[in-house]
Amino acid sequence: MSKRVLLGLLLACGLSASALAQEPKTGGVINAVIQPEPPGLMLAMIQNGPTQMVSGNIFEGLLRYSPKLEPQPELAESWSVSEDAKTYTFKLRKGVTWHDGKPFTAADVLFSVEMLKQTHARARNNLAQVDKVEAPDDNTVVFTLKQPFGPFLGIFEVGSMPMVPKHLYEGTDWKTNPYNNAPIGTGPFMFKEWQKGSFIRLVKNPNYYEKGKPYIDEIYWQIIPDAAARSVAYETGKVDVLPGGSVENFDVPRLSKLKDTCVTGAGWEFFSPLAWLWLNNRQGPLADKRVRQAIMYAIDRDFAKDVIWNGLGKVATGPSASTIKYYTDDVPKYPYDPAKAKALLKEAGYKGEKIRLLPLAYGETWQRWGEAVKQNLMDVGMSIETISTDVAGGNQKIGDWDYDIAFTYLYQYGDPALGVGRNYVSSAIAKGQVFNNVEGYSNPEIDKLFADGAVATPDSKRKEIYAKAQKLLVEDVPVAWMLELQFPTIMRCKVKNLITTGIGVNDGFKDAWLDK
Amino acid sequence: MLSFVAQRVLKGVIVLLAIVVLNFFLIRLAPGDPAVVMAGEAGASDQVFVQQLREKFGLDKPLPEQLFIYVKGIATLDLGFSFRQQAQVSKLILERLPATLLLTLTAFAISLALGVLFGTFAARFAGTFLDTGITIFALIFYAMPIFWVALMGILLFSVTVDWLPSFGYETVGANFTGFAHVVDVAKHLIMPAMTLGLFFMATYTRMTRASMLEVKRLDFVKTARAKGLSDAVIQRRHVLRNALLPVVTLAGVHAGTLIGGAVITETVFAWPGIGRLMYDALLQRDYNLLLGVFVTCSVMVLIFNLITDLVYRLVDPRIELAA
Question: Which of A121, A199, A223 comes nearest B44 by C-beta?
Answer without folding.
Answer: A121
